Amino acid sequence: MTPLIIDTDPGIDDAFAIALAAGSPEVDLLAVTTVFGNVALSNTTSNALRLLELCGRSDVPVAAGADRPLVHPTPHRASEVHGNDGLSGAADTLPLASHDVDGRHAVELMADLLRAATEPVTIAPIGPMTNVALLLAVHPELKPKIGRIVAMGGSAKGGNTTAAAEFNVWSDPEAAHRVLAEEDVPTVLVPLDLTHRCAVGAGRLDRLAAGGAVGRGLTTLTPSYRATYQRQLGLDGMVLHDAIALAEAISPGILRTESCPVEVDCSHGPGRGATIVDRRRNSPSPRRRVEVAFDADVDDLSEFVLSRIVS
Questions:
Q1: pLDDT digit string (tens) for 122-167?
Q2: At what angle are helices 130-138 and 106-116 packed, to 10 degrees?
């Protein structure tokens, strides 16, 4: 089994990602760490605890991390997409957590787990990358313990929060730049270019709702998210951005990637938070390369994700 840490800001697509990991025997879910993002840190942390309870994984520790970006304040959250509590206003429909949040900061919990690890650990940041940037800055000696970083974020063709920027990267561009452009840990980036192609339609969501307690619990959380995609894309369904990244963390190679230099626009103009992905075949860029996921067998991928959650 691959040891896995999820760093997250639940969030409805984050909820599906946590359930996917909880239902996958290929990974040993070591911890869930939380960060500001879709909603405030207090909400993301409470949501993570409740989601693990829903999935029968109260054994997994949850630690709270950064409640703001590294440098500049974020102008707004994503409550218009995820609801004021991050889960369509339905967080309290989830079971109460039977365990408390871990007393350590998220970065220290991750560091402790890495020190103790006997196998390379995969870290999956599926929210703003603030905690992971801090981990790499404060504990560089632990980088050899990280097998891969598999991050959801960015886009080569424009954003969903601004014309240029995807939400996770836009929320803390400086952190994303450190993780994607300045570090040397093997990294996979799963951008909007792919996740938007992996939308889940109403039929598959109905199948999920007709399944077991986890599937029913998750579909209860989706109304505001589905309404957003109906307005924006005319889609009767939704996009499970973070679960697509988790699929790669769980099953390496399920997504098809290109090795590309990536930079993040940290200016304060209209391009702030944009990911500049250099797809030129013989790019002269001196930047390190990350694996950027641009393709997958979409039907197989959707089945992989949903079949693990229907329980």
A1: 999 999 999 999 999 999 999 999 999 999 999 999 999 999 999 9
A2: 60
Strands 256-264 and 275-277, sheet pairing: antiparallel
Per annotation, catalytic residue among 82, 139, 241, 268: 241
| DSSP symbol at 115 | H
Q: Could you give the dihedral angle defined by the CA atoms of residues 140, 145, 148 and 149, in that order, rounded to the nearest 10 degrees? A: -40
Which of the 8 DSSP states describes residue 285?
-
Active site residue 241: yes
CA distance 113 to 131: 14
In the chain, the number of structural domains is: 1
Give the CATH number of the domain where residue 90 resides: 3.90.245.10
Where is 21: in which H helix or E strand?
helix 12-22
State the Cα–Cα distance between residues 74 and 37, nearest whole angstrom: 9
pTM over 0.70: yes
Domain that holds residue 105: 2-309
For 10, phi and psi rounded to 5 degrees? Answer: -60, 125
Cα radius of gyration rounded to whole Å, the chain: 18
The pLDDT of residue 103 is above 70: yes
- DSSP conformation letters of 32-98: EEE-SSSS-HHHHHHHHHHHHHHTT-TTS-EEE--SS-SSS--S--SHHHH-TTSSTT-GGGSPPPS
Identify whether the C-beta of residue 311 lies closer than 8 Å to the C-beta of residue 213: yes
